[in-house]
Amino acid sequence: MESIISYFLCFIVEAIIVVQYASHLFNAKRTSGNRLTTLCALYTILFIVSLFNNRPINMLLYLTANCIFLSTQYEVNYRFALFHSVLLSAVMGMCELIIYYMMERFTPRFFAQMDQFYNTIIFILCSKLLFFAIIYLLTHILKNPKKKNQHYDNMFLLLIFIPATAIFIMLTFVSLSDHYLLDPNFNWLICLCGLFLLIANLLVFGVYQYTQTKSLEYTEMQLLLQKECALTDYYKMLHSQSENQSILIHDIKKHLQSIEMLNEEKDHEKISLYIQQLLLSSELKERSRICDRELLNAILSRYQRICSERNITFHADIRKGTTDFLSDSDLTPLFCNLLENALEAIRSIENPYIEISTSKREHAPFVLLTVINSCRINPFSNHNESLQTTKPDKRNHGFGLKSIRKIVEKYEGEIQMYYHEETLTFHTVITLKRIS
Question: What is the pTM of this model?
């Protein structure tokens, strides 16, 4: 009965680790229910066979089961699945050896009492905690860059401290029980503490994964709302422009009659002025077409309208094919944050202007993005290169620039910002690498 419980605990933890490992590295090609059913079936077979205590067969079946699970449930070919199955087996074996030698070094009488059930449980808990920590670290080293949900920072390294602390606590308890005669009930309490530590580790990592996923979903939702806002304003502007053109066409007969009256009076100067006013009217202007990419055209048209309403000179020169490598989720925050920062900088300035341009580097896979805007005061703080915000809420600023820097890093680029004292202008120069 004791061996059944210990094997059951082993396979439960190992199954959780395999699922976590696969979900981080590979794209699933089956539903979650299908994956869970397949995993339960495979590990049930492993559990039944393990009761016969044949180590070579157990290891071979462990390799085979993980290979079948990865290749059938995820977008992985058989050779790649076999490689990761071998990797999992090797790490698991290494973790058991590490714990074995550590216990042998610090608690020499521990393995002499392996017939005690709680000693077996403690050994399993320590080795599986170490296995879990190393696999979690490997998932971030080997993570798939094509998976959208892999937006992690270096905070995950701090989480490794949690299972390491749990292992240290367990080994301390084992060392105490080895050097001092403890009540058997106290040994069972140690086992129970180890089990709770394992569950706590799994819950902490699960909650961390959940918050990361929700944070990414929230970010994507915000980008979608920003994109929809830009497109909505753009199409409203097009509709308004089209409506004004229809009104002008409807009234053209009246304009021609007025011109005819001026012609009968032979007032050529007034005729010329009248025609010039008609030609310069916004109703006769062509629909806004700033660049060849629809989403970016909507974003720039929106800011062009904002600048027009605030009497800001706006000039955009977006060369063809310079933004096609940027995804919509990167294009939106990059250009919106750059233009929002420019609008913030030119507040309360006479005759302000904003210039934005993109161009290709010849004979190099790089695109140059430049933003120049009026700026009356040097935004850089004294003695360093950090920017000073003009917003009243000092604590909740700088996220736009952080978003820009993150996108620049993603495309292996560089960002340079400087202030030109003579022209009172702020320059942002971004170099992005075209990633196919």
Answer: 0.47
